[in-house]
Design goal:
- By secondary structure, this protein is an alpha+beta fold.
- 25% of the residues lie in helices and 30% in strands.
- A six-stranded antiparallel sheet has the order 1-2-3-9-4-7, with no helix packed on it. The protein has a three-stranded antiparallel sheet with strand order 6-5-8, with no helix packed on it.
């Protein structure tokens, strides 16, 4: 399932307006400066995954609604078949595929991430919670704080996501599974 990232800002604005929340209150309640929030909502700036979670929480909805326009349906188990995750490019350099998008009330977000070293590396980000990365294919350079780690297929790393961090492919393509718990 491929989603159009251009639709996410419109969904956010529509839900915010339905709930009669001002953009100023939405930004403040989500911990996002108003100038940045306005750029997210207008589509001028890509919305980081962590900001999507904060916005979804403030709107009282699941992040799946913002990404797909549909409610998550499963509450006991959700199967995601190969190649069937919700795919969305959120940052230049990263392609995400949500592996549990259809599970209601998730407390963590498992994502399959595709990296290509021919693309410019993504900027470092930080968000609340913890993050786990497991390399499925290729080599991934993971920067956490001031340290860098090169991980190969089968390697993993677990870290405090409040620290600035980023991932990039080493020599070609790489895939890793990340599990983010906020």
């Amino acid at each position: 399932m491929n989603e159009n990232p251009a639709q996410i800002p419109g969904r956010i604005k529509e839900l915010r307006e339905i709930l009669e929340i001002s953009a100023m209150d939405m930004a403040a309640d989500s911990g996002i400066p108003l100038e940045i929030y306005s750029k997210y909502e207008s589509g001028e700036m890509d919305i980081p995954i962590s900001a999507l979670y904060n916005i979804a929480n403030r709107l009282g909805t699941d992040v799946t609604v913002l990404i797909t326009g549909e409610e998550a349906r499963m509450d006991s188990a959700a199967v995601c078949r190969k190649g069937k995750g919700v795919q969305i490019e959120r940052y230049p350099g990263y392609e995400f595929s949500s592996l549990a998008y259809n599970f209601k009330g998730r407390t963590m977000e498992p994502l399959l991430v595709f990296l290509d070293s021919s693309r410019p590396p993504a900027a470092q980000v930080s968000h609340s919670g913890q993050e786990f990365n497991f390399v499925v294919e290729g080599q991934v350079k993971v920067s956490v704080g001031k340290r860098e780690y090169v991980l190969s297929q089968g390697d993993s790393i677990y870290f405090d996501a409040c620290l600035l961090h980023s991932q990039s492919a080493v020599n070609g393509h790489a895939q890793f599974i990340t599990i983010i718990q906020e």
